[in-house]
């Protein structure tokens, strides 16, 4: 079990680093860091200092849902809330974000 978790953490770090590097310039943001954790109740988060945190469990989700979580957390660098402006920014890059969000629930 520990070996599998270590493997997923490694895959998560590699994959999420690439996806953040792809989407961050599109949104015009630069996170201050990227951490991989083992959270069970949350796919990702953005700290007040613009550091991104992602659960390694996100690697078990479909690829297009992983991209949604990345864009969602990057959008929190611009808007620290879930306002209409926040979701408009997410929708600018992922117009079908609501379907992706539903799959993650």
Characterization of this structure:
Helix 2 (63-78) crosses helix 4 (97-104). The chain contains 4 helices and 3 strands; from the N terminus they run H-E-E-E-H-H-H. It has helices at 2-27, 63-78, 84-93, 97-104, and strands at 33-37, 44-46, 51-55. A hairpin with a 4-residue loop joins strand 2 and strand 3 (51-55). The model has no long low-confidence stretch (mean pLDDT 97). By secondary structure, it is an alpha+beta fold.
Short description:
With 105 residues, the protein is an alpha+beta fold. Helix content is 57%, strand content 12%.
Basic shape: globular
Strand arrangement, major sheet: 1-3-2
Instruction: Tell me the distance between the termini.
Output: 24 Å
Fraction in beta strands:
5-15%
Helix-strand string: HEEEHHH
Q: Average pLDDT across residues? A: 97
Q: What profile does the largest beta sheet have?
A: 3 strands, mixed
Task: Summarize the amount of helix as a percent range.
Answer: 55-70%
Rg from alpha-carbon coordinates = 13 Å
Q: What structural category arises from helix and sheet content?
A: alpha+beta
Low-confidence segments, ≥5 residues, pLDDT <50?
none
Helix count, per DSSP? 4
